[in-house]
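Hello Y.,

Per our agreement to keep a running log of every chain we model this quarter, I'm adding this entry. I've kept the format consistent with earlier entries: sequence first, then predicted structure.
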Amino acid sequence: MKYDVVIIGAGPGGIFSAYQLVKNKPSLKIAVFEEGSPLEKRHCPIDGKKVKSCIRCKTCSIMSGFGGAGAFSDGKYNITNDFGGTLYEHIGKQKALELMYYVDEINVTHGGQNTKMFTTAGSQFKKICMQNKLFLLDASVRHLGTDINYVVLENLYAELKDKVDFFFNTPVTKIEDLEKGEYRYKVDYSDTFAECKYCIVSVGRSGSKWMSKVCSDLKIPTLSDRVDLGVRVEIPAVIFSHLTNELYESKIVYRTEKFEDNVRTFCMNPNGIVVNENTNGIITVNGHSFEDEHLKTENTNFALLVSQKFTAPFKDSNDYGESIARLSNMLGGGVIVQRFGDLERGRRTNAERLEKSHVRPTLAATPGDLSLVLPKRILDGIIEMIHALDKIAPGTANDDTLLYGVEVKFYNMEVELDENLETQHKGLYVIGDGSGVTHSLSHASASGVFVADKICENL
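Predicted structure for the entry above:
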């Protein structure tokens, strides 16, 4: 099988690469290899009744498949250079923003036309946050919701499926640079292979271990990246409604007094639900929300995360994050939930205390003690942050506020790339969160468009 372009990974980066290639050069022969399933076959077996917790499927339908991990991640496209990655360091701030707005136009024309764009520009909350030692980051955000995001992905796939060869449930095992000939790259899969002129790697965060091996095999330099550790907070939606009604998602940073660590809010889901997430067989926690009024809950959830970056002699930040998550899985059989009041009193939450809580959990998690899992420095920072948020959203630090742990955001080792997102192997590009350069839906999608344009220029 010979292709002009092979794309590895059908997450946002891979999808928008394929979309832009087809748009610019309809005659190109393109293949997309994805270890997960097509969108319509992505179903998590957890139903809350017969299956109440993760059964560790061979391939996690939440993390893999068409749409990538972003398919069920609330569909928030943040348009900003202030967070979400360092794409602008490679392609420039203006270009990065232009591409993110271009991605937004595509989402709107493929099913997102009735969704709202929120912005922090001119928000009164910026001043209120600063007065309470909090910093509100600037961004515009298009909230599709998990349901509308699914519709957008359906429409994109319908547009691409007859123009691109999709190989689902087909993990790529190896990439080889043949260093000669028109078809320079050999992509091994399922005891056979394909050859291509250009190869785009877009494997997301869940492909971090695989990406590390590829970089090792091809001698591509990498830099150690960070891991984000923390909890997912669940509170009554009314407590944060004054923020979420205006901003939808507020990215707030707090510098702790004790250690001067930065703690940040992440992935805010107004009237949403808390969900399990399976990364490399490790169960962590995440959150979703929906546009459909019938799917909304009485709770809002968001993550509080502390970044950890290591230097010599230890470099593998992801292994560190995995070890913390494994400890949670060992103690709780998966995700642990604890009342904030119990955490501050130094006692474990049990089933009886959880039953009496005024905040009804949206995820069936094991009542437990997060202080036995998270390092003291991280937990102290989270407690400080909750009390800081309580000043701008009174009630955040209530006893019945629920904390789910652990939430871990794994980042790939940052791959050494030039201004075209190209490795030292000409024609081999690494994009999306798998590159360590982008950390969001909008940045990953923009990187896909950028690389597709570069390939079309070369052709």
